[in-house]
What does this fold into?
Amino acid sequence: MSKLDAGNIHKRIAQGDPEALAIYCRFQDNIIGSTPMGEGAHAWPAWNDLPSTLSPVRPLRGWRMWAVFDTTAGPRLCAPFLTAVLHATPDIPGVTWAPGINRNSTYTCKVRHGRHPQVGCRCGIRACQSLTVLRAFATNQAPRIGPLVAYAEVDVWGRVAPFAPEAADWKFTLRAEFAEIAGPLHLAPTHAIHGEALAEHYDIEVQK
Ligand SMILES: [Zn+2]
It folds into this structure.
């Protein structure tokens, strides 16, 4: 898709055009490839079988990526799209990952009622069902957000909602109310210098 086409597609998806959604899904399928669950796959129930609220004792596991920001307080994991595309700074709610449990921010959500995320809204902490999908998504988005530098498995619970195509989410992605890092943080060699500080701040294992 060219830039112009992509803009048109997203506008049409937001207007509920099923043909546009099908085109966008095929575009994603081509990039993800024939084995979306090839690496690091987690079993997720079909959305029909999934309660909209998950207990913290039975979370789902997925993969998430971050940007790394070197702040005055030390290096921090930050939401890659909010910082790179919307130019949000690490102090804005929902931008910087906190140690332990993180809660979805409704800071940018247009829906002003109820618990979030909702099927009809666009907020939520994103997680991908497999590492294959996360890598494909990250590679495709690299021109906007830069290369994949930090990723880890996360447990998600609370309110959950399927991916929001009108927010340009990809398939095999969910949006959650709560999330916590549940595996080692994989850090690119370019950011290895921040490994120890990130491990200490977040109390997690870091693999460089
Ligand atoms: Zn929302």
